[in-house]
Design goal:
The chain has a 5-stranded antiparallel sheet with strand order 1-2-9-4-7, with no helix packed on it. It is mainly beta. This is Cupin. InterPro entries: Cupin_2, Flavonoid_dioxygenase-like, RmlC-like_jellyroll, RmlC_Cupin_sf.
């Protein structure tokens, strides 16, 4: 692809996150697009407001591309997001990702390790499945979803959201979390 063929912010707003900084070499530019495990840390505070309400909601996010949908506004230690976010999530044994909804994006869960029950709800209908190692679900926008670790070990899963800056999710109106300030 010739340099002139690269998308520009005028043709694709996400292109600003891909463009090399002025004066950056090709090597420096691509190295800035790498997120290494050794430079990541689990953020147990991203969703701490939920765990403070009930310890069963305790879980951690490790961000790689963008900041995801947890409400973390900025993380300079991530690859800038163009069209999606990518992180890993740890859900300790017995813990829960509470029922929530993303109205603006699909959300993908890919289980690397563990056993998680995913519960989805829409228009009074409920559906659930159990995901194990290397299983995936893509939850469409507008569908409530919850993740429950039903195994004896921590669940480790990848989470992708289909936007560089997804809207912070909301909870069902009858959920006590709907009334909590972040």
């Amino acid at each position: 692809m010739a340099e002139a063929d690269f998308p520009t912010p005028s043709t694709d707003p996400a292109a600003a996150s891909w463009a090399p900084a002025p004066g950056t070499s090709f090597e420096q530019w691509l190295e800035s697009r790498v997120a290494r495990l050794e430079t990541r840390r689990y953020d147990w505070d991203a969703l701490k407001f939920q765990a403070d309400f009930d310890p069963k909601y305790r879980r951690a996010q490790m961000r790689y591309v963008g900041t995801g949908g947890t409400g973390v506004a900025k993380d300079v230690n991530t690859v800038p997001a163009g069209h999606f976010t990518f992180s890993t999530m740890v859900i300790p044994a017995g813990n829960i990702g509470p029922m929530h909804i993303h109205n603006d994006v699909e959300e993908i869960f890919f289980v690397l390790r563990g056993k998680v029950k995913v519960i989805c709800e829409k228009d009074g209908q409920t559906w659930e499945t159990v995901l194990k190692d290397r299983d995936l679900i893509s939850v469409p926008p507008g569908v409530y979803r919850s993740e429950v670790n039903i195994g004896d070990e921590d669940v480790l899963m990848c989470v992708m959201l289909g936007s560089a800056k997804p809207v912070t999710p909301t909870y069902p109106p009858d959920s006590p979390l709907a009334k909590i300030k972040r």
